[in-house]
Design goal:
This protein is α+β, with helices and mostly antiparallel strands. The chain has one domain: Butyryl-CoA Dehydrogenase, subunit A, domain 3. It contains five helices and five strands. It has a five-stranded antiparallel beta sheet. A hairpin with a 4-residue loop joins strand 2 and strand 3. The N and C termini lie close together (12 Å).
Length: 191
């Protein structure tokens, strides 16, 4: 029965990974005099949305003035293939739980950490591209100014206070990793 606890714990971790479809992974909020309550963009595993229907449109209008590219979720390939990665990891987790192998538990958690780190790096590359590769014909040009929002934390971009933080989806991703590691430790102790 003791080894059954590690299996159930691991299966729980593999299944809660699917909650990244129900909650955003990250949020970026912009505060400014014209947006005192802030406008928030949510980054999901499969889409980009806003706190209201017009947020993406408003951000794209602002981006136009400073020469940033438009945010067009349909053109971002990661939003099409990341869901398959999550589903693949969940299915792999279910198979590993059936096999009930402690090294499988640990390996799955390590792969999930690596995939999460690669996702954050990819996010950094996108923000770098959007913030640095500006249209030279933009109406507002400030020499040397870049508009890359922070990956984590707060940064002033002209009169905008940009705040970027993990959201609930990242919490569930992290919880999946922790339950995978906990299942490995529990199974190792019960051998």
């Amino acid at each position: 029965m003791k080894t059954g606890k590690s299996r159930i714990l691991f299966l729980f971790g593999a299944l809660i990974l699917l909650l990244v479809f129900a909650f955003p992974l990250w949020s970026i909020t912009l505060y400014a005099p014209q947006y005192p309550d802030g406008i928030t963009m949510y980054i999901w595993v499969n889409k980009i949305s806003g706190s209201t229907e017009s947020v993406i449109q408003n951000i794209n209008i602002l981006n136009h003035y400073i020469g940033m590219k438009y945010i067009e979720p349909d053109t971002i390939p990661e939003l099409r293939y990341f869901p398959y990665v999550v589903i693949g990891m969940t299915v792999a987790g279910i198979v590993i739980a059936i096999v009930n192998n402690k090294w499988g538990y640990l390996g799955w958690a390590v792969v999930l950490v690596i995939l999460g780190a690669l996702g954050i790096y990819d996010f950094y590359l996108w923000t770098y591209d959007y913030g640095h590769n500006l249209d030279p014909t933009a109406p507002i040009k400030i020499p040397g100014m870049v508009y890359q929002p922070p990956i984590f934390g707060q940064k002033m971009l002209l009169n905008f206070d940009a705040r970027s933080y993990p959201h609930w989806g990242s919490f569930f991703l992290g919880l999946s990793v922790l339950t995978g590691i906990a299942a490995f430790v529990l199974k190792t102790k019960n051998r």
